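Subject: ATPase

B.,
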Amino acid sequence: MSLGTVEIVSFGYLHDAPPAAHLTVDLREHFRDPHVSPELRYMTALDEPVRVAVMNTPGIADLVTSVAAAVTAFASGPSAGKVTVADGCAGGRHRAPTFANALAERLRADGHTVTVHHRDLAKPVVNR
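Prediction pasted inline below.
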């Protein structure tokens, strides 16, 4: 039995405005950006070293758990429909897609039906 349908969209604030969502998670200020590491800068969340760096950041696992609980609360509402979560970082290539995939894995384990879209993952690295 599915608890609810969830759409997760990862994005980069430096590319465009955040997508419309019920919950928007801004990962920019509180979590270290792999972009600052030259060896990770041109990789993406599709690369294991980036995923390890992001998921080993203090607080990320707790945030996944907290956002999953919030999604379940939204999905439990009396007029529950699809719940959309947008999570963003600066460029949308490292933190946001890694977080989105971890959240999707958690929500699926909890019984939700989940789709994930990485809006800016394939865009070029933003020079800043």
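The mean pLDDT is 94.

T.
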